[in-house]
Write a structure and sequence with these properties.
By secondary structure, this protein is α/β, with parallel strands linked by helices. It is built from nine helices and eleven strands. Keywords: DNA-binding, Phosphoprotein.
Length: 224
């Protein structure tokens, strides 16, 4: 899953980026409103962490522009302001959640996971497809109750497909959501990761839809 952080405090921005990358996210970082608005308008993100007190263009304006442009990614507003009026303004501008500084990174990550789950129609933190379970809190994957070790990129790809279970996901969409902006993107690596996941979880766990992409379904749905 890919996340955009728009935060002008250098230390906090770097800390958040490092923490989220350690949690398995692909992360881009913008340090002012102009760059943040541009990335949010031109790139694909599963969620955004947006500071309100930004230079160049303030966070509320950035958020309002995104929503007017039809950008629907969930946005977690992050700010030092803690008055009820600022919270209302952020939510009215299109924010999906609100967290005031200072905060615990564990809470931020938990809120981020919840936003991404809700945006993809998943209520539980545990994603299930047949005998495969992916725990978004711990990052652990099991098959028939047995732990399965995946690389970081394999986990990102499986997580994205399980968040969008039953939907056909194109190779381009996978590339946009499992790599950050600076990563050297190669569409051929997607097939490599899919092959590796099939070897670890079963040949039929991911179905290739020729000319369209990939889909992950419950075994019961496939039989139906």
């Amino acid at each position: 899953m890919r996340v955009l952080i728009v935060e002008d405090e250098p230390n906090l921005g770097r800390q958040l980026r490092s923490t989220l990358e350690g949690a398995g996210y692909a992360v881009d970082l913008a340090t002012d409103g102009e760059d943040g608005h541009y990335l949010g308008s031109t790139e694909s993100y599963d969620a955004v962490i947006l500071d309100l007190g930004l230079p160049e263009v303030d966070g509320l304006t950035v958020l309002d522009r995104w929503r007017r442009e039809g950008r629907r990614m969930p946005v977690l507003v992050l700010t030092a302001r803690d008055s009820w009026s600022d919270k209302v303004a952020g939510l009215d501008a299109g924010a999906d959640d609100y967290l005031a500084k200072p905060f615990q990174t564990e809470e931020l990550i938990a809120r981020l996971r919840a936003l991404i789950r809700r945006a993809s129609g998943n209520a539980s933190s545990e994603l299930i497809a047949g005998d495969i379970r992916l725990d978004t809190r711990s990052g652990k994957v099991t098959k028939d109750g047995e732990p399965v070790k995946l690389t970081a990129q394999e986990y990102k790809l499986l997580s994205y497909l399980m968040h969008h279970k039953g939907k056909v996901v194109s190779r381009t969409e996978l590339i946009e959501h499992i790599y950050d902006q600076d990563f050297d993107r190669d569409s051929n690596t997607i097939e490599v990761f899919v092959t590796r996941i099939r070897k670890k979880l079963g040949a039929d766990v991911i179905t290739t839809i020729r000319g369209l992409g990939y889909t992950l379904d419950d075994p019961e749905d496939k039989r139906a």
